[in-house]
Design goal:
Layout lengths: L3 H10 L3 H7 L1 H11 L6 E5 L7 H8 L4 E6 L2 H14 L4 E5 L12 E7 L8 H11 E12 L3 H11 L6 H8 L2 E5 L5 E2 L8 E7 L7
Parallel strand pairs: 1-2, 1-4, 2-3, 4-5
Antiparallel strand pairs: 5-8, 6-7, 6-8
Helix pairs in contact: 6-8
């Protein structure tokens, strides 16, 4: 579970998220496009921050689809709620909760996105389990994240409470079909150890008929 110290760290970091939104715009488009969302579908945004992906996700699923964001930091959750209210999105929901401890659903989402969030969760495995449980059979998870190395890994662990483990390895342990993507969302050969910057697309297994 996340600690009070970790929550405080992300609250402080929230003041610089505007710059992060600008720098990450291209990759947000890339991750949403890679999911291939259709109108009417439901999508889960894990560690949604200030809700910077909400607009793109809602555009993909349309007014009859559903977008649910989950955020641990009170300040970031507040900004995400303000974004929803300002835009008047009736089909976008913000949940201020801990993705590593609180259930996010039971086979109710067509897709999920986790942008630069899993690597900072101390109980990453629990969050991945919760995402897997929340997805429908055949549902997709798109991950855009970092795999910090060296001194940056130590700094990341100290400031964010990050576990310092390989995100791609953990996802491969839980999901049956996982692919590493390049900067154009094309599948590439798996690399081990994983690169510093990660783009991953995972699919939950479809249940076989009895």
């Amino acid at each position: 579970m996340g600690s009070t110290r970790q929550r405080r760290a992300w609250d402080i970091a929230s003041y610089g998220f505007g710059l992060g939104e600008l720098l990450g715009a291209n990759h947000r488009h890339l991750t949403v496009d890679a999911l291939g969302l259709s109108p009417g579908e439901s999508v889960l945004d894990v560690g949604c921050g200030a809700g910077h992906d909400f607009g793109l996700l809602r555009e993909a699923v349309g007014p009859h689809g559903r977008v649910v964001g989950v955020e641990f930091s009170p300040k970031l959750a507040g900004r995400a709620r303000a974004r929803i209210a300002e835009a008047g999105w009736s089909n976008v929901e913000l949940r201020h909760s801990d993705a590593t401890a609180d259930p996010m659903g039971d086979a109710e989402f067509d897709a999920a996105v986790a942008n630069c969030s899993l690597s900072a969760m101390p109980a990453m495995d629990a969050a991945i389990d919760n995402i897997h449980r929340a997805l429908k059979p055949g549902g997709l998870l798109m991950v855009w994240d970092v795999n910090p190395k060296g001194s940056f890994r130590l700094l990341y662990r100290t400031l964010a409470g990050a576990p310092g483990v390989d995100v791609s390895h953990r996802i491969r342990q839980r999901f049956d079909d996982v692919h590493m993507l390049d900067g154009k969302a094309q599948r590439i050969a798996w690399r081990s150890p994983s690169p510093w910057f990660l783009l991953l697309l995972a699919r939950k297994a479809v249940r076989l008929p009895h």
